[in-house]
Amino acid sequence: MSSPGPDTAGTAAHRARALDALPGPGALPVLGNVLQLELPRLHQQLEDWAAQYGAIYRLQIGRQRFVCIADPDLIGAILRLRPEHWRRVRRLEQIAREIGANGVFSAEGASWSRQRRMVMAAFDPGHLKRFFPRQVLITERLLARWQRAADSGLALELQPELMRYSVDTVAGLALGVDVDTIEEQQDPLQRHLDTVLPVVFRRLNAPLPYWRWIRLPADRDFDRHLAQMHRIMREMIDSARKRMRAAPSLAEHPTNLLEAMLAVRDTDGDALSEEELVGNVFTILLAGEDTTANTLAWTLWLLHEDRDCWLRLVDEADHVLGDQDMPRSFDALREFAWLAACVDESMRLRPVAPLIYLETQRDTALGGLAIPRGTGAILLMRFAAIDAGRLPDAGSFDPQRWLDRGSSQRASLNHVTRPFGGGPRLCPGRYLALLETKMLLSMLARNFELVDVATASGGAPPERMAFTMHPEGLRMRLARRLH
Ligand code: HEM
């Protein structure tokens, strides 16, 4: 698949091909391709179209025109050209604002830069290291819960199990709140949170913003969950304010993102607006929950399917941990090279963010194509990573390929695999996500046999898109390992 190089100069737009000249599926007036879209498997459908029409083709959702891009050079160029040339699709910011979740993920311009700086500070490796004892505590709770399940022979619904872990982690780290959904049977926070991203995804791909005029039963149900989410977030913010009043030094030395956001003043002395504050609490909970949990779910399934890879992980955990049941020092995490390769390989084959929606901020030209201001772009993040023409045995789960460092293979892998996006908006939560995956998988390998990770039918789990991509219907059964 050959690709024209990125051409970013807006002045070149007049020399380039017009968008209409691109191939793509036939579109209806007004609705465009909306009736053809199969939302639960949208990423696969767009990948199928890339195989049919080429690595750059057109699509129309309602009145907005999109270019779908599967070429890794062009994807890299677009990601780097933010925030000036490209932004997240405008519809996303509107939807986020409507539900009170407009934070660093959906914000643009000066507001984004300011929020981004704070978020980066809260998620840097130094901060994670200080948080590590809390992460051990959260992992101990999960270990105890899974030991009970193993003793009773209970099959666990994998997705909610992993989400409890990721919600507890992100709420503890970023917001300083011990929500303890692992022990809590009702887990209200997680139950409300789970309803949000599927609705955002549906609205993002709707031909018209119908929910602004009529509320369907599903929208009314969602409103109820949303009201509960806001009540919980309000309580979190209020208690952080109280803590900070009681200990004014926290304003100078905030211990988490929420405190930092409450303490911050810009150069004019203005605090973050209430909308920015709530929007970021919401954003961080959303961004940290599904992504990490889905990555873990896919990795567990792939490891269960490949017994040799799993046994090598068990060996590594035994070797690194010795007598311990989980990593008890931050530095021990660095020694899990095989584990890290398994996660990298899982994110190559099953990236949980296979589509990134953007929009041009100005008339621009890319790959010899004139792209008018306001045109959308959907980046197909997996297409090249599983292309047999680019990687040997591209469809197989082979973590070893990540360990051949220094080889040209490693460079091509990084070029085609970008599970955390790229450029100035690269995922700030990636270190936390990797910390969580290492803690959970090493604890699992050290303490349990994977009896089963499977769907009811025993077949491969379907890939389901609901903003992030997850395996549908996986259940896990564990047995205690006899040491
Ligand atoms: C395996 C887990 C994760 C994956 C695969 C993932 C993936 C991504 C991707 C693809 C993006 C878009 C990047 C871009 O536009 O270039 C993103 C953005 C973001 N992620 Fe993650 N993420 C993960 C975990 C987390 C966690 C744990 C957090 C924090 C709690 C987090 C917070 C964010 C935020 C705040 C953004 C928006 C950044 C911005 O727009 O400036 N992510 N993530």
Q: Quick recap of the structure?
A:
The protein has helices spanning 42-53, 72-80, 90-98, 109-122, 125-152, 158-175, 188-193, 196-204, 217-246, 249-252, 257-263, 274-305, 307-321, 337-349, 408-416, 430-447; strands at residues 56-61, 64-69, 86-88, 156-157, 355-360, 364-366, 369-371, 376-380, 448-454, 463-466, 468-471, 475-480.
**Spatial extent as radius of gyration:** 23 Å
Report the biggest beta sheet as strand number plus sense, adding barrel if it closes.
Answer: 5 strands, mixed
Strand content: 5-15%
- Which CATH class? Mainly Alpha
What is the CATH architecture annotation? Orthogonal Bundle
What order do the strands of the largest sheet run in, or round the barrel if closed? 1-2-8-5-3
H and E order: HEEHEHHHEHHHHHHHHHEEEEHHEEEE
Global outline: globular
CATH homologous superfamily caption = Cytochrome P450
Low-confidence stretches: 1-6, 8-14
How many strand segments? 12
